[in-house]
Amino acid sequence: MLTIENLCARVEDKDILKGLNLEVKPGEVHAIMGPNGAGKSTLGSVLAGRESFTVTEGEVRFDGKDLLELDVEERAREGLFLAFQYPVEIPGVSNMEFLKASVDAVRKHQGKPDLSSVEFMKLARETSKRVKLDQAFLKRGVNEGFSGGEKKRNEILQMMLLEPRLCILDETDSGLDIDALQTVADGVNAMRSEERSFIVVTHYQRLLDYIVPDVVHVLADGKIVKSGDKSLAKELEAKGYRWLESEVA
Amino acid sequence: MGDLQTHALELAARQQAPEWAGDLRRRGAQRFASASWPNRRTERWKYTPLVAIAKKQLALPVDDVMALPEGELIDVDAYKIAFVNGVFSPQHSDALPEGVVTLADAEGSEIELLQAHLGRQADSQEHLFAALAEATLGQGLLVHIAAGKVLDKPLYVVHYSCGEQPLLASTRILVLAEASAELELIEHFLCDTQEQANLVTAQTEMVLGDNARVKHYRLNLEGEGVTHMGGVFAELGRDALFDGFAIATGGELIRNDYVLSHCGSGAHVELQGVYLPRGRQVVDYHTNIQHRVPHCTSNEVFRGIVGDRAKAVFNGRIHIFEQAQKTLAQLSNKNLLTSNKAEVDTKPELEIYADDVKCAHGATVAQLDETSLYYLQTRGISKEQALVMMSFGFINELIQAIKNPAVAEYLLPRLASQFGRQPDDLLVLEADTLD
């Protein structure tokens, strides 16, 4: 599904990713852990196509396509979804209008039939119930005045509506209370399937109690320095990242 | 004397007008003639050059029966009153409700009221185009709502500019709302083609008695060729409420001066405005909220989106007089530039002489937020559509807050299509700005 080879990227003049390799197969859940500043969020931004991040070397293939050649919106339409660490507030643009525009654009590209306004509203309402987001939030501006937890629920709502094939969760768990964390995890687990893959970027092992990964990677200084099964996360939690840094060195 | 001064006064001299207006007209003519034509050093016109209008060749409107563009009117249950090129058009107007009379038909005590109030607030010594309006006085309305009366339907005044010849269209509205009277006035300015090039001088003066309530809409939806020199003036008595909404989408030059004065304690002014000049259009709002007495409140919010090579000027003055203690005044002006050639000149101006007041003001100029744009794109929305959504979102809050649903329903699709139907030039410029 996703093959990353020797990915190097910089923001402004600072090298952040320094030769990252990763292979994600359909149906797999990969967790990426690592200390602050390791490049975890950069990876999400580079995959989503944020312009301020420059890829200096390496390649990324998404279902055989050269991902780095695609515009931001094309990547989304091809089935890549990034749940933001800090979802953006856009006052004045109604959440419902935004969700509809988004779903319309993605479905059209994927050759799925259009949803009528009525069908869409119904779907949006049902889905918002599943992520326990009050329907009043559909009428507000995008993320406008949402609490941290409500913003993350809104991200998961979008993920469920767009039905992406590759979901990248960028520290979606940070700042969440246990209820919100459970809801986010339920949303992800409900969407797990043989065709859909996840990259779960997190700082804390806690999330991985709820979303059980197939592979855990440790990202440090722009590279994946260690990979293992879910027990690696526990080990990290117990020993801290320092342990690893010394081991790698 | 400038070209327009000479020329307009020649036109005024050939105009027919009611006899009672004679003295006012002479006064206006004299003041307009003796005014020095503004230049870049004139504070009130510093950012709004009048060079182009000074050369306008105008004629007087003739009594043509032009059809109104019915499809372009607001579908509202109201008393419709039409002025075509500034001239009252009975065939396009509903029967006037009690208390409303055209200036031409005013008689007896109505004339006395007109003579007592016209030009009192729209001071022709102070406001250049109020002087021109006074010199050309003759068309317009007197709206006199008696104490305790509530006008059952809004007054929907259609100001229609049409025809190939640029005309001097001058209308005047005087509203006298006595104690506890209520009315809603919708002023809708429109024209037949983008080339239509009238000079519209429309001055509206209102006197709100104690506890009177006036809702006022000033919709400048003219085409790209029109020059509009307007003024909205109101004096508020004790506990009176003026609730105003203003919008200007374009025009060669659209200038409106709002002067709203709190003259009785407990009065409240609410004023919301939106401007959207494009191309080479210029929109200019000068607002002046005068807190003359204690315990009054005002809330003013203007938002503008300026694209292409267009220009917007916003001057928001709040004047709190020495005795106006316990005043609460708020002013906010936010601007969005969607092109790197667009210009905004915004200036909040506070003059506070009382020492126990709360006054908040702010003005911002920004470009569309790059992070928001990226966020929308990561959800599959194209850059072009995202820009449209974000621009529209910026003013949408104010449009959604319009209290008259018919006005909101009229404006929403038109504004949406204004954003939607310009994907070529404007959005290319926008994309340039963001890169």
UniProtKB/TrEMBL annotation, chain A:
<protein>
    <submittedName>
        <fullName>Fe-S cluster assembly ATPase SufC</fullName>
    </submittedName>
</protein>
<dbReference type="InterPro" id="IPR003593">
    <property type="entry name" value="AAA+_ATPase"/>
</dbReference>
<keyword id="KW-0547">Nucleotide-binding</keyword>
<dbReference type="InterPro" id="IPR017871">
    <property type="entry name" value="ABC_transporter-like_CS"/>
</dbReference>
<feature type="domain" description="ABC transporter">
    <location>
        <begin position="2"/>
        <end position="246"/>
    </location>
</feature>
<keyword id="KW-0067">ATP-binding</keyword>
<dbReference type="InterPro" id="IPR003439">
    <property type="entry name" value="ABC_transporter-like_ATP-bd"/>
</dbReference>
<dbReference type="InterPro" id="IPR027417">
    <property type="entry name" value="P-loop_NTPase"/>
</dbReference>
<comment type="similarity">
    <text>Belongs to the ABC transporter superfamily. Ycf16 family.</text>
</comment>
<dbReference type="InterPro" id="IPR010230">
    <property type="entry name" value="FeS-cluster_ATPase_SufC"/>
</dbReference>
<dbReference type="Pfam" id="PF00005">
    <property type="entry name" value="ABC_tran"/>
</dbReference>
TrEMBL record, chain B:
<dbReference type="InterPro" id="IPR037284">
    <property type="entry name" value="SUF_FeS_clus_asmbl_SufBD_sf"/>
</dbReference>
<dbReference type="InterPro" id="IPR000825">
    <property type="entry name" value="SUF_FeS_clus_asmbl_SufBD_core"/>
</dbReference>
<dbReference type="Pfam" id="PF01458">
    <property type="entry name" value="SUFBD_core"/>
</dbReference>
<comment type="similarity">
    <text>Belongs to the iron-sulfur cluster assembly SufBD family.</text>
</comment>
<feature type="domain" description="SUF system FeS cluster assembly SufBD N-terminal">
    <location>
        <begin position="19"/>
        <end position="156"/>
    </location>
</feature>
<feature type="domain" description="SUF system FeS cluster assembly SufBD core">
    <location>
        <begin position="168"/>
        <end position="394"/>
    </location>
</feature>
<dbReference type="InterPro" id="IPR055346">
    <property type="entry name" value="Fe-S_cluster_assembly_SufBD"/>
</dbReference>
<dbReference type="InterPro" id="IPR045595">
    <property type="entry name" value="SufBD_N"/>
</dbReference>
<protein>
    <submittedName>
        <fullName>Fe-S cluster assembly protein SufD</fullName>
    </submittedName>
</protein>
<dbReference type="Pfam" id="PF19295">
    <property type="entry name" value="SufBD_N"/>
</dbReference>
<dbReference type="InterPro" id="IPR011542">
    <property type="entry name" value="SUF_FeS_clus_asmbl_SufD"/>
</dbReference>
